[in-house]
Amino acid sequence: MNTNWSREEHILAFNLYCKIPFTKINAKYQPVKDLARILGRTDGSVAMKLANFARLDPVLKARNVSGLTRGAKGEEDIWNEFNEDWNNLGYESEKILARYKGVSIEESAGIDIEGIPAEGKEREATVKVRVNHNFFSNTVRASYEFKCCITGLKVPDLLVAGHIKPWAKDLKNGTNPSNGLCINALHDRAFENGLITVTPDYIIKVSEALIHKLPKPEEDVFFIPYQDKKIILPKRFLPSKEFLEWHGSVKFKK
Question: Fewer beta carbons under 10 A from the terminal one: N or C of the chain?
Answer without folding.
Answer: N
